[in-house]
Amino acid sequence: MTAPVLECQDLKVSFLKKNRLIKAVDGVNIHIDPGECFGLVGGSGCGKSTLARLITRLKDSDSGKILVENEDVTRVKGKDLKSFYRKVQMVFQDPVGSFDPRKTIGKSILEVLGNFGLAKKADRKELVTEALEMVGLSAEHALRLPGQISGGQCQRAALAKAVVVRPKLLICDEVTSALDVSVQAQIIDLLSELQKNLNMALLFISHDLSLVRCFTTRLGVMHDGRIVETGPADEVVANPQHEHTKLLLSSLFPIPKRSCEFEPISPAA
Ligand SMILES: Nc1ncnc2c1ncn2[C@@H]1O[C@H](COP(=O)(O)OP(=O)(O)OP(=O)(O)O)[C@@H](O)[C@H]1O
Ligand SMILES: [Mg+2]
Fold it and tell me: Which residues have beta carbons under 5 A from ligand 2 (an ion)?
């Protein structure tokens, strides 16, 4: 049996806020298989981003374990972070923030290839163009600054920067939240396409269950730092077991009755 691309075992972290202990991540156990699309859903403040920060080693956990392809990366630091980041990449809600505003999109992606020592120097430009085309942009976008493209295009560029290293797992934290609904659908379509074409696992984080259930195969519902329910997306939606899942499915977060079909990708917005 192949190892999960990611496994979190009893992961915990707390913050002290105004003398109050906040258990932001409180004993999380999840696993994601290679090439799988896992959705993490929950209301604001339930700990989704903190969990992503622990997994991506942007923050140390208090206890528990993080395994990537069976390798313990819970405390990975220094030069070992490089091979870790080649396997696990993350894209955030604000795509502009993932670029240096003074550097062109192409230069930023080129630097990623350089930092990881990937490909021969002479071949790197071609790989940048290939990554941009993979996300529905073109070589022309490589010449623009982050401020010279739209929000949707910038999110595509952020995805290009992440997938150029061919990660095994891509973590997307609310990547569509700042975008128009029509552009959201395009980005979701694009993510599905990238996940399949690159055989990459996806951890898609969102507060929007109606969106998450549409294209993830399995999902976890988070509440107060814990995963309160997990299972195949269709089953969890059809037969929610936990009160909080029922709440997410209630009028607060209406789920459209129609099937989850998005429009095909039109020219990059
Ligand atoms: N650096 C920090 N210091 C203190 N408290 C923090 C810190 N980071 C997060 N928290 C707290 O941890 C809890 C979880 O926050 P987190 O950002 O992970 O939630 P979230 O589920 O991503 O919410 P949202 O949907 O609004 O993005 C919140 O109560 C938050 O205030
Ligand atoms: Mg968050």
Answer: 49
- 127 C-alpha to center of ligand 2: Å? 31
Question: For residue 202, what are the CA distances in angstroms to 58, 173, 196, 198, 219?
Answer: 18, 11, 10, 11, 11
Q: Give the other-Cβ count within 10 Å of 3's Cβ.
A: 14
Give residue for tokens 């163009």: 129
Among the atoms of ligand 1, which is closest to the Cα of residue 51? 18
Structural domains of the chain, ranges and CATH numbers in brackets: 6-249 (3.40.50.300)
Residue range 57-67: mean pLDDT, rounded: 97
What are 100-119's pLDDT values in tens digits? 999 999 999 999 999 999 99
49 CB near ligand 1 (under 6 Å):
yes
Residues with Cβ within 8 Å of 158's Cβ and at least 6 positions away in sequence, in order, are 91, 92, 95, 98, 99, 175
